[in-house]
């Protein structure tokens, strides 16, 4: 993780190296490129890392104290994802079309 609050002087503030299978001296057994995806929950200060073997939930002091208890979704990145989950998005709204036009 890098702190880019000063873009001309980025600072490394955290890192994660998932455990590896195999022996480092045996090329055939050493799994390389094990991190497959990363998802950051900015509102909860959590980082999810998926590998070929597991999913890890991480936190970092640079993000702030992690929020671990469940909470209501306040806003999704894509507006229609809130349909039925909040009071702001019409239940008839479905993938950009009124429900009457779906199907």
How would you sum up this structure, described in words?
This protein has 103 residues and is mainly β. The chain folds into 2 domains: 20-71, no CATH class; 76-103, no CATH class. It is built from no helices and 7 strands. The strands form 3 sheets. A 3-stranded antiparallel sheet has the order 3-4-5, with no helix packed on it. A two-stranded antiparallel sheet has the order 1-2. Strands 6-7 form a two-stranded antiparallel sheet. Strand 6 and strand 7 (97-98) form a beta hairpin. The protein is extended. The protein starts with a strand and ends in a 5-residue tail after the last strand.
Short structural summary:
This protein is mostly beta strands.
**How far apart, in Å, are the first and last alpha carbons?**
44 Å
Judging from the principal axes of the Cα atoms, what is the shape? Answer: extended
* Total domains: 2
Largest sheet: 3 strands, antiparallel
- What's the order of the H and E elements? EEEEEEE
> Mean of residue pLDDT?
76
Count of DSSP E strands? 7
Catalogue the unreliable spans.
none
Key features of this structure:
103 residues; 2 domains
Give the topology, please:
Layout: E1 2-3, E2 11-12, E3 35-41, E4 46-51, E5 55-58, E6 93-94, E7 97-98
Antiparallel strand pairs: 1-2, 3-4, 4-5, 6-7
């Amino acid at each position: 993780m890098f702190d880019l609050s000063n873009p001309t002087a980025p600072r490394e503030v955290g890192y994660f190296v998932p455990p590896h299978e195999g022996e480092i001296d045996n090329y055939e057994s050493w799994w390389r490129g094990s991190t497959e995806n990363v998802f950051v929950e900015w509102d909860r200060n959590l980082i999810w890392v998926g590998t070929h073997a597991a999913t890890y939930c991480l936190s970092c002091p640079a993000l702030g104290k992690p929020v671990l208890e469940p909470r209501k979704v306040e806003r999704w990145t894509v507006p229609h994802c809130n349909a039925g989950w909040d009071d702001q998005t019409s239940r008839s709204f479905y993938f950009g079309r009124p429900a009457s036009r779906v199907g």
